[in-house]
Amino acid sequence: MPAGVGGGADGPRTLDVAYNTGLTNIDPALACSSPYDYHVVTAAYDNIVELSPRREASGAHEVAPALAERWKVSRDGKTYTFFLRRDATFASGNPVTADDVVYSLRRLLDRDGCQAYVLTMGESGLFRAIEKVDDHTVRVRIAHRDPLFLLRMTSRGNGPIDRRVLERHGGLTRAGDQWLARNTAGAGAYELESYDPDSEVRLRARADYWREPVGAEHVVMRIVTDPTTLQTLTASGEADLAFGVALKDLRALEQQGRQIFADPSNRYTYVGLNNDKAPVDDPRVREALWLAMPHRELLERFGYGYARAFAGMIPPAMPFHPGFDVPERDVERARQLIEEAGASGERISLAVKSGETEQLQMATALQSAWKEIGVDLRIDTLSASAFSDTVSNFKTQAYILRDGSSVNDPAFFLGFFAVCGNPFNWSRYCDREVDRLIDAGRTEPDPARRERIYRRISERIVADNPILPIFASDTIAVASPRLRGYEYYDDQQLVLRKLTVDEAS
Questions:
Q1: What are phi and psi of 180, to 5 degrees?
Q2: Are residues 304 and 385 in the same domain?
Q3: What is the pLDDT of residues 237-294, one digit of tens each?
Q4: How open is the CA angle 249-504-482, to the nearest 5 degrees?
C-alpha cells in the first residue's frame, strides 16, 4: 500500500461517486460553472489555509492551517504573513514554495474569474502586494481592514499551482489556461488520472501526500444524467456516494438503508431572467411571471420536505434573510400585467442543464402555468458546458439554476449576484441604489445596521423581480451505509480525502 493511502479492512479500494451532471472547468481560478467542478479542485489542490470542522460560537467555521502552518496579521489588519510547511510537495514531487503561492495568486487575480471575485469581493484595488519574503514565507498586503479576508482565503480555488509544471504546458498563456482546464498541478491528496467532463473523471491518491492517510486509493467520478440510472446505482450500492439524486427518491433510499446527508444550504433553485432581453427586460413582465408561478405546487411537488420557499435574493440559511412572504398565485393580475406590457403571445426561451431532471420538470410546470397568462415558454435542454456558455455569455432570455455562495454572507453573495456589470450577475440586474447599499453593508461592522441595510436591499430586489426564486433546498448527498468520513462545510464542497468505505460491514 502506498504510504499516503489508507484503506478499509481489506486494504485500499476505489471510491465510486456518481453525479447527475457534468463538469465544465477544473482550473482553480475559473472553476465555478458546475457545482461539481470544485470537487476535483478540492481533491487536487490543497490550500494555504482551510475551513476547520470546528465552529466558533457564532456558528461559523474556524480557519485552520493547511499548506501554511501558521500566519500572522498586522495590527492594522492590512498585512497577512503566511509561513509555509517545509514538507509539502506537489504531485510532480516539486516542493511547495513561496514562489508558487505568489505565482498562483497573481495568476488568479489576472484571470479575473470566479476565484478572483471570491478573494476581492469585486474590489479591484483590494490587493496592494503579493510578495515572497523567503522560500517559505509569503506576505499579502490589502488596502484596508477586511474582516472576511482570511475566511475567503480558505476558498477551495485558492490552492497554489505547481508553476514549473504549468510553465511546461503554456504557463500564463491561453495554452496554459486550456491545459489547466482539463489537468491538475496541485499539492492536494489526489492527482488526475483521466478527465472526460461529461462521462467520467478518475483520480488517484498520492503516495507522498504530506498529511494523514487518504481513504481511497482511486476515485471514480461518474456522470449519470439519467435519473433512473442514478437512483439504481445508488440503491444497489454500486455508487458509494451520489449527488443530484431526485428528492422524490430519498425516502425510499433511506428505507433501503442508504445514508441521507441533508444540510441546510444557502443554495437555491431559481429562474434567472436576463433583464436586458425583451420581453423580460420589462418589470411588468417579470412581476407577472412571479405572480403566476405556482409556488405552493412547486414546493410540495419538488421539495419533499427538504426545501423552503422565499422571496428575494438572500436565502433562509444566510444571515440577514428578510423573511418576506411568497405571494399567493394571482393569474388575473399577472395576465393584466402581460397585456399592459404588450407581451401577450411572446415566446421566452428557458435554458435547462442536461441531467437536472427535477429542474426540467419544474420548467415544464412553469411552461403550463405561464401559458395561462399568454406566455409561450420554450425549454432548451443543454449539456453542462453549453449551458455554462449560454448563461454566462447572456445568450438566453431565461434559465433555471441551483446556485449559492461559497461564503455564507450577503456582502459576498450579493456582490456578484446583484451588482451592476459584474460578469457573474447573469440576470444583468442593475440598480445603482442597491449597489450603494451593498457597499455599505460590506463595511458596516454593526449587525443591527447591517440587518437594516440588507432589508432595504431585499425590498428593492423583491419589487424588481430580477430573478424568481423557486425554493432553497438542503444540500443532499446519498451514501452507502458503509461510507465513513463525510463532513459538511458551509462552502458545500466535498472533501474526498477523508472518505473511506468499511469493507467489513
A1: -70, -20
A2: yes
A3: 999 999 999 888 999 999 999 999 998 888 899 999 999 999 999 999 999 999 999 9
A4: 25
